[in-house]
Amino acid sequence: MAILVFAVAAFALVIVLAAVGLIFASRRLAAAGQALIAAQFTTDQIVQAAPLITHYGLASGASPALRGTGVLVLTHDLLWASTLKSEATLSIPRASVLEAQVMPSRVDRTGTRGVLQVRYQGPTGEERASFYLREPAQWAQALQGAMR
Prior knowledge:
The chain is an alpha+beta fold. The chain has a single domain (2-147), classed as Pleckstrin-homology domain (PH domain)/Phosphotyrosine-binding domain (PTB) (PH-domain like), CATH 2.30.29. The protein contains two helices and seven strands. It has a seven-stranded antiparallel sheet with strand order 4-3-2-1-7-6-5. The relative contact order is 0.14.
């Protein structure tokens, strides 16, 4: 019986330590994202910014370096995304955005996150970029406001 109690306690401790580690890692990534945004834009240029997102890449599969953890910034003229690891960037002029919509996420069950899908006119035709982030409806609304 004592071994079972010890095993359960050890397992609980491992879970707590893993959760604390994830929180610290998330904070470090968000701080890196904030620094990347500050290096690229002034506060006057930024309409909205998300210092920690997941970029799912482009629907065409072009530029696989754009997948992963990164940042998303909306300015008056541009939707800009960058990954933290490779600092690969995607710049979408707001005038080229055709549609912005929120897709449900299979990852998040709380409803506070979803996938922002942006359809735009790229240099070689229509393209779609997808981003997993907090409050995707606000982003879609801001982008749709620019399309009017």
